[in-house]
Protein 1
Amino acid sequence: MSICTAPVYKLDKLSNLFFELTAKNCNQRCSSCYINFPSSKNVKDFLPVEKIKEALADTKENDLDCIYLTGGEPMTHPDFNTILRLCLKRCNVCICTNSSFLNEKKIRFLKKVEDEGGEYSTHNQIFFRLSLAHFDELESDKVKYRGHYRQTISALKTLCRYNFASVLSIQNFYGLSEIILKESFAKIFEQNGINNTDLQINVSYPVKTEENMINKSQKTDCMFGRTLTKNGVYSCPFLSNDYRGRMGSSFKDFSTSVTAETDFCSACSANNNWIFTIG
């Protein structure tokens, strides 16, 4: 009888910070979401701005590539604009959103916020990470929510007009080949004039096989980043507020290694690439 030993991933370099602006507040309910949302949509569990300021101060010696604003839906945070400006002073910022807030008025405002960065020594940029599950509208909406596909394509078109770069993450719920996905989305991008969006194809999660638990991925989010929540520092967004991913109370003193023992860790191993990190 073989014994499956979960791999241990060590932090290679703290290049990315993930700020979970809210764990349970979201204006939508995607059927495939890895977060177990309560029935109420009015959970007030927002990450305090002071904790973000502390994290930025505690990591001032780290050469960060990007700060990711995650959730829940990060744009429901009442101090979202303040947080975005704080983070832009440090490095590039990626907003991980369900796209429902990205109408033309909001995107135009975000472009003005990005342009404010011209006063800093380096002009940091805002990126966006959106998601779909299929190139077919009905199939994708089954996994997300009704109207999500059109909302996302519309947001990508508007972001393109304002010269924002985006990543469209495909949760490969249907197990389609990468060739089919890439070719199909290339046609959709061409039809809609979307020319500044990269495609990131991920396995559907969670997934657990003995092979994935044994084989060690060469590139995972926990090897280059840590996640800050109201409850402390965690290895990645998947394991935020999960005791198995807890790394410490703050960035003054946190663990640099994590045992990949969860089903979500299996998804990362199967994917053999970043799931949340862009680039």
Note: The chain is about 30% helix and 20% strand.
Protein 2
Amino acid sequence: MNKVQVIFKRELCGYFATPLAYVFIVIFLVLAAVFTFEVGGFFERGQADLQAFFRWHPWIYLVLIPAISMRLWAEERNSGSIELLLTLPVPLWQAVVGKFLAAWCFAGIALALTFPMWITVNYLGQPDNGVIVAAYIGSWLVAGGFLSIGMCLSAATRNQVIAFVTAALVGFVFLLAGFPLVLDFVRGILPGVIVDAIASLSFLTHFEAISKGVIDLRDLVYFGALIGFWLAATAMVLDLKKAE
């Protein structure tokens, strides 16, 4: 695990060594504020809660998280440094986990910087802070899901633009699977069991449950299994590329 920590620290420090980290954080905070106050009608709703804030997180992540994940392996492959990394006495799975945890921690830092929103609703009223904590956890889990998908697709190509586009497309599919319009459409042509199975694969289905303050073990297992699957797929892709 010490090697995981070394890679984690190297990657996390690497984010803040370039303008990318600061640009991402600023854009995330601006988009979160715009969607909360302008699009979400925070003041018009007349309620001291952060439902308008968290509702848009999956859609913001759909665009911003691939911008983080696209460089995780594509940049290493394009620069040729991946060969050096894979020849070091570091198990492949530890390199994958270390990189993922660094990116996930960075996303968590950006999310934590939205704390003024939390302070604002507590100043304006008496919100259910337990629900807000649960929603923050759910939001971070969604970010981890998007990151794991993007990381795998980044490992499959040396082109960061391709990694970004494919990660956004796959992430969009995972969002659409739980979108009410999509479910209403497939409900008319498919059995209910299949419709429920499709909905269970969606980020939205599990995130909405957690954001209501209900942290169900099934939702945690879903995100854990999803992240684990895509990290394992990343290791397999890298192993295949190493053999080429």
Note: The two ends are 28 Å apart (CA to CA).
Protein 3
Amino acid sequence: MRLIGRGAALAALLAATAGCHGRASAFLPAFDGGFSPAPPVSTETPREVHFTYTGPRAVTFDWLGTAAKLRFWTRDSPPHTVTAHGPTPQPTSLPGPFQEAVLDGLQPGAEYFYEIANEVRPVPVSFRAPPAGPAPFVFAAVGDMGATQGQPDAIVVNEDLRIADPSFVLMLGDLSYADMASQPTVDRHFDEVMVWSRRAAYMPVWGNHEWEDAPRDDLRNYKGRFALPHAAASPGAPAAGCCGKDWYWFDFGGVRFIIYPEPYAATTWPDWARHVEPVFQQAQADPSIHFIVTAGHRPAYSSGHHGGEPQLRAILDRFGQRFGKYVLNLNGHSHVYERTKPQAHVVHITAGIGGGQLEHGPTACLWDNCTPPPFTAYRAIHHGFIRVSASPDELHVEAVCGPGSPPNDDVHCVDGEILDDVTIPRGGLSSSAEPRRRHPDTAVR
């Protein structure tokens, strides 16, 4: 048998295919003509992703980007896809589009995975659905965060919050400080918190820097980025905020959280007190609610730069005297850490220690008055945040050290170290009970 050489084989192949060329040419145009080119796939990475708990079995996501689809699933269930809509009001820091999507029908306490848009090689992120009834959980609280352009310590505090891995973060007002910089600072803040806000819910409180300088920034940039549970309007709220969302409340793991508004007018807090009283009453009567916690931006008790608000103090004191489950209030505004002894049954904690510049007085001790007031149990000037471990029987509150800011600190502590702690049992902390301070000898001045 004779083998065909490489050149002869190629010639034979060309001869065989030549006869088919005409038929193929006639067929291929007709075949190709029946198909349209595939549309380009968006590879945009969504920005400013965060979510809030909006119901016992629901969360609501907000983000910036053109993609309007969100897929979510558990390890034991197939994916569901929801379509986003535009928020109300529309934020003004960028043209958008801003997206908002409701995820409901969640399995209580389950871990969910989700993807937004058609990112290149998307990596699913997870979040935890609200638990059903009383259950252990961890939440965090901190105020006066800002963004790294004007508050460089914010990046470290945000990273510390990621490491703490709370179910949610109560952001206690003065979120971006865009009124002191520019509108892009709003977007920078919501981009920077994504280190934790894709997994932990971002539960906001409005501060004075969100509304007092309306020509430079206003509440549309914040109300438009959040859906809030049981949201309500307050008298005196700026018109450039629209649609209520001035205060709200929600239940989580056997704790009722009640957010109070900014004092837009002299009538704002008295109006809140009247409308929120049934919320306190219902929580006090509900056996599944073990604790009531309030949160807002302004302090009722503070020896920091801004001091306490007498009108707010009187209102919260009355609630503390009437409702035994009400044991803790959290606030920012003064850029210090301060924990009070129980005041009318309630421990008040000022935690304006996010990224905002620490505040101090013109004294050797850095406080306006070097002698703490009688209501103070412990105070310190240092960046950080509050971590609360909640169980059906107690709230264990820890002040966690963040980055140092010498010479503005009045204590030395290492990032992540516990600066101060207190355990509040069911029924409240006795006025005579004073837990040991973690760092009794760390005063710098």
Note: The helical segments are 6-18, 21-33, 154-164, 184-192, 194-197, 220-223, 268-285, 310-322.
